[in-house]
What we know:
It is a single chain. With about 210 residues, this protein is α/β, with parallel strands linked by helices. It is built from nine helices and six strands; from the N terminus they run βαααααβαβαβαββα. The chain has a six-stranded parallel sheet, with helices on both faces. The termini are close together.
Amino acid sequence: MKNTILFDMDGVIVDTEPLAIKRSIKALESYGFNYDLDILKSCIGTSFARTFEILAEMINQPLPEDYEETENSFYPPHLVDYKTIKLNNLDLLLDYLKINNYKTAICSSSPIERIHIILESLGLSDYFDVILSGEQFTHNKPHPEVYLNAMKQLNADPSECIIIEDSEIGLQAGNDAGATTIALLNDFYEIDSSKADFIINDLKQVLDILDK
């Protein structure tokens, strides 16, 4: 029986991926760098550190020392109104999980400080029993370490867990953790969802999966 739901954050809780791409484009353009939109989209689901590595490879030179500061100056995380980009039917799903005593966790590749900023701005922190960042561990996604640690903290067996992800990297982490995976599709970018156990377009559809 499934009794534990593990959520990615970006693209699952809030639709921040388009904003992240815009932030990177503005930063790159400010230095006069050309960019490949497909390469930028390939960064979705990766850690900030890995994203910066990909960007450096794309421009074929190291990023400027102040690149991260420059990028953060566009749409600063603490100034974004996350309520306007919260995923449809998220509240419906979280209320259902809370009422029915499901164990829940956030397992994101983003820095832990950013995770808390977003959850607190949405008033959702209390909906999650465990909140983890892949940056807290030796390996970030696509390694399953963040998910395995969440399961351990929740005393949950992988067979009891469902992981909701929006990226190929996240789905790989979920599959390697031994959980049932759900791919949440997004109109902004396409992913190979063939290895997901379920594919949805709206979080409300998770309720149908839980009823099976």
